[in-house]
Amino acid sequence: MSLKGTLRVDLGGDTSRPYHEGEQVKGRVTLVLEEEEKIVGFNLHFVGTCATKTTRPIYVAGNEADASHSNRPYAERIALFTREQKLLPACTLAAKKYSWDFVFTFPSHTEAHFSRWSHGTKYCRKPHSLPPTFSLATDSPGGQASVSYMIQAKLSLESSSLRLKVSQMLGYLPSAQNTPLEPRIRPRVLYAQALNPGLEEVTVTNRKTVVKSSRKRSNTTTGQKIVPTLYAPDKVAPGQDIALLLGLAGMNGGEAVRCTLDSLEVKMSTYTSARCGQSFSEPEDHVAKHVTCISKKNMNQELSYSTSTALTTNFRLVDNAECVPTFETYTIARRYEMTVVIGIKCEDELFTIKTTSPLVILPRRTPSDNLPLEEGEDDEPLPLYQPREPSKEFAPDYDSLYSLALSPSACSSVGTRSPSFMSGLSSPITVPTTPETELEQPVYPSQPQRAT
């Protein structure tokens, strides 16, 4: 027997916006009954879950022709946290409309504890920061990895063995309070990829060892050894400028060689791992995606030894569904890498520098985030408004301010105004000192002219 009525969960405000830790989730549960019902229990749950699913092939005799029937499914679901509010105990409700308001607060950390002996060594044993809302289909058949948050109302009826469930999904994103305004640039000195103009590399391979050495090319001049340094951020938020710079430094004091930037290629790699956490098999899916962001050739840009050369201009990450902040939870992990390939020409020789480094993506700052104050600046609030008594001083008479009485003065005198004119109108007004020949008599068309 089904419920004759409706059950609805409504959220207040913008339902599409992401929530942050410490923010309140407010809403209302509405139950409309068309006839009298006996309620066994009515509860409201606020939960965060981490779910993974995958399959692995298993051999069964006789199914060589169709291997799809021999896939063993694996699934795991972990509760990151759980909040419960009891709306009604067992009772009988009349046919009418009922509503309940609720308020939940997003926690900052997970609550689940797991032993690595029973769930594997890759499990996060201790509580950690909540991961952002996430969903991804893996390459395995039926593979899925998701992190979700929801408000769920569960209604149990005496006349039915089934529970009526209504859920409202919530978006979550870690707060950007710890995200800096600008990414910090860090140097990476590439000693192993030093440039040796005029030398060629010779590789000698033995049974057990590989020996690399350099020797001078014929009819060439050996220049100084050049060590490149790449300046790049290791943490960045979507929308922030990813500045890449290249510096060159001579090492052995030889003759300086003219170098130019020939090519540049920048790739972003995304790696996602999803585990089911079984104690013995631990099936794990890996998803990798590589995107070429910058590809330039024949740049012919002069490189300096004294200053660093900017490689990029206005290079930023797009804030979309793919740009999820870096996180690692019990069974799902998301990380990023940035690969930079630089082609450098030293005289007529072409050298290639390649470096791959991890890149941590932080939550994006929004205009609502409070900007940090400058060093030494105090956050002084504005004073509270206090009503005051109106001034009892009357405004000065118009004729006293602009008197028509003229005073004789020399033609060479300069018109001056009292310094107290703007500060206090109650002070005496200075008599006009404009020459008589420059003054004009006022005309009043609506009144008869005064006798002089």
From TrEMBL:
Bias type Polar residues, positions: 409-436
Molecular function GO terms recorded: protein-macromolecule adaptor activity; ubiquitin protein ligase binding
Biased composition (Acidic residues): 372-381
Cellular component aspect of the GO annotation: cytosol; plasma membrane
Region (Disordered): 1-20, 363-395, 409-452
Domain of life the protein comes from: Eukaryota
GO annotation terms (biological process): ubiquitin-dependent endocytosis
Domain Arrestin-like N-terminal: start-end pairs: 12-114
Protein name per UniProt: Arrestin-like N-terminal domain-containing protein
Organism, scientific name: Sporormia fimetaria CBS 119925
